[in-house]
Amino acid sequence: MQELMINGLLVIVIGMAAVLLLMGQRKDLGMRKKQKRMLYRILAATVLLLILQLAPAEWFERVDSWLPGAGYWVHLGLYLIDYLIIGYDILLKAGKGIRNGQIFDECFLMAIATVGAVVLALYERSGDYTEAIAVMLFYQIGEWFQSYAVGKSRRNISELMDIRPDYANVERDGKLERVDPDEVAIGSVIVIQPGEKVPIDGTVIEGVSSLNTSALTGESLPRDIQAGDEITSGCINMTGVLKVRTTKEFGESTVSKILDLVENASSRKSRSENFISKFAKVYTPAVCIAALTLAVFPPLVRMIGLGLDAEWGVWLYRALTFLVISCPCALVISIPLSFFAGIGGASKAGILVKGSNYLETLSKTKIVVFDKTGTLTQGVFEVDGIHHNEMEHARLIEYAALAESASSHPISKSLQRAYGREIDRSRVTDIQEISGNGVIARVDGVETAAGNDKLMERLKVPYINCHQPGTIIHMAIDGAYAGHIVISDRIKPHAKEAVAALKAAGVQKTVMLTGDTRKVADHVADALGIDQVYSGLLPADKVEKVEEMLAEKSGRGKLAFVGDGINDAPVLSRADIGIAMGAMGSDAAIEAADVVLMDDDPMKISKAIQISRKCLGIVYQNIVFAIGIKLICLLLGALGIANMWLAIFADVGVMILAVLNAIRALFVRKL
Question: Which of 105, 371, 516, 564 is an active site residue?
Answer without folding.
Answer: 371
